[in-house]
């Protein structure tokens, strides 16, 4: 697949998605089929081409529209494609040395690697648009940790972690404990995702990525527990001030009551 074909397929997927959004949005509609077919063909894009083009801002923004589409079939396929391309970028970034192999042997190795990566991405996606979207949000949050950590030794630990696997594990724990992303549990989902994405809360992301906080533990944590270390310290100070104020109030009452008793005895 060449660059022009990639861009044409992507544009076709976007136009079909917009058409589906204006229509009834049924999974069986022609617009939905055209959109999904285009995205399925985009899976065939060479790894190097995908890595080059997905960095384009216009493609990134448009892909978000696909992942947020009101049709679950389009959402699911867009999330899978996002997972695949992100996996390409992840593998490319982890390579220590450029390949020296060329020719047919190198191409075969690329084909085997791509097939393996596609299979891994299928494992990391569920086919449920809501669940895959949660996994995508968690992955984006966890991917930020490498740039937030400054301590060298800790950075080595972070880089060695697979953010996709952790995101899938955490989402699985959330789904098992909370059920679907709907109804009364939607607020809990949003609370967890908000804290994981919060720019002022890198501590939570780091602890989850490094396994210091498991998915099972994260689901049971209160808002105060998920807050950043800084906010937790501030909350602790407020509680301590309130406790000291209450203790002083009780002491004042006791002194007042003691004084009243003394006056009563004198009379």
Structure description:
There is one protein chain. The chain is mainly α and about 270 residues long. The chain has 3 domains: about 1-125, no CATH class; about 125-225, no CATH class; about 235-265. Helices cover about 80% and strands about 0% of the residues. The chain has 15 helices and no strands. Helix 2 (about 30-40) runs parallel beside helix 5, helix 3 crosses helix 5 and helix 7 crosses helix 10. It is elongated. The chain starts with a helix and ends with a helix. One of its GO terms (biological process) is DNA-templated transcription. InterPro entries: TFIIS/CRSP70_N_sub, TFIIS_cen_dom, TFIIS_cen_dom_sf. Pfam families: TFIIS_M. Keywords: Coiled coil.
Helix and strand topology:
Blueprint: H1 3-22, H2 30-42, H3 47-53, H4 57-67, H5 72-94, H6 103-124, H7 129-143, H8 145-148, H9 152-159, H10 163-178, H11 186-197, H12 202-209, H13 215-220, H14 223-226, H15 229-266
Helix pairs in contact: 1-2, 2-5, 3-5, 4-5, 5-6, 5-7, 7-10
Keywords summarizing the entry:
elongated, 15 helices, mainly alpha, 0% strand
């Amino acid at each position: 697949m060449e660059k022009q074909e990639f861009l044409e397929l992507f544009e076709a997927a976007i136009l079909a998605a917009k058409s589906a959004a204006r229509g009834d949005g049924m999974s069986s509609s022609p617009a939905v089929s055209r959109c999904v077919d285009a995205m399925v063909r985009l899976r065939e894009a060479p790894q190097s081409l995908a890595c080059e083009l997905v960095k384009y801002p216009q493609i990134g923004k448009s892909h978000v529209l696909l992942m947020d589409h009101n049709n679950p079939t389009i959402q699911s396929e867009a999330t899978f494609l996002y997972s695949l391309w992100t996996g390409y970028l992840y593998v490319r970034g982890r390579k220590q040395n450029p390949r020296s192999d060329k020719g047919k042997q190198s191409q075969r190795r690329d084909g085997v690697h791509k097939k393996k990566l596609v299979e891994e991405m299928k494992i990391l996606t569920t086919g449920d648009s809501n669940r895959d979207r949660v996994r995508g949000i968690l992955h984006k949050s966890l991917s930020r940790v490498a740039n937030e950590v400054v301590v060298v030794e800790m950075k080595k630990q972070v880089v060695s972690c697979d953010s996709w696997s952790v995101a899938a594990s955490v989402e699985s724990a959330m789904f098992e404990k909370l059920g679907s992303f709907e109804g009364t549990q939607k607020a809990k989902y949003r609370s967890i995702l908000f804290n994981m994405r919060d720019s002022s809360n890198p501590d939570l992301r780091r602890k989850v990525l490094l396994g210091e906080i498991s998915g099972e533990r994260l689901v049971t944590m209160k808002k105060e527990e998920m807050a950043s270390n800084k906010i937790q310290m501030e909350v602790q100070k407020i509680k301590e001030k309130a406790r000291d104020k209450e203790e002083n109030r009780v002491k004042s009452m006791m002194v007042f009551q003691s004084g009243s008793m003394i006056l009563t005895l004198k009379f």
